[in-house]
Amino acid sequence: MKAGKDYIGVGVGAIIFNEEDEILLLHREKAPEAGCWSIPGGKVELFENIEDAIKREVKEELGIDIEIVELVGVTNHIVEDEGMHWIAPTFLTKIVGGQVKNMEPKKHGAIKWFSVENLPENITITTERGLEFLGMKNMV
């Protein structure tokens, strides 16, 4: 049995901005939404709370420590053509330690800071919804 395929999975996402108000996105190499740019995140493990899960996922993916500023919303991450269904709480976070680097190059082909006014066209559902939650809908 596989989360997101055989039953609804729970994933988490982190919106991270730098001092220039650019958002950090990762280019996904694996489903769901392979080939798209996404906020960092991943699945919640059994008996793990969502706050610990996002801190762990960001550390695993980017090698940085984050602090949660606030929960900005929850996305119904349904990708019907891939047969995937996730529920994804998204957090606004800030970096409190470490340097951003690609710790999982097989999962993420690239990591890049983007101006919200100049985002790539191919962003994930969770990225788009996260920005909408922050009132940046017109920029997406």
Can you identify the CATH superfamily?
Answer: Nucleoside Triphosphate Pyrophosphohydrolase
**CATH topology heading:** Nucleoside Triphosphate Pyrophosphohydrolase
For the largest beta sheet, what order do the strands appear in spatially? 4-1-6-5
**Kindly state the mean pLDDT as a whole number?**
95
CATH class: Alpha Beta
Gyration radius (Cα, Å) is 14 Å
Report the principal-axis shape.
Answer: globular
Q: Tell how many strands the DSSP assignment holds.
A: 7
Helix-and-strand structural type? alpha+beta
Question: What is the CATH-assigned architecture?
Answer: Alpha-Beta Complex
Q: Report the biggest beta sheet as strand number plus sense, adding barrel if it closes.
A: 4 strands, mixed
What letter string, H or E per element, gives the SSE order? EEEEHEEEH
Any idea how many domains?
1
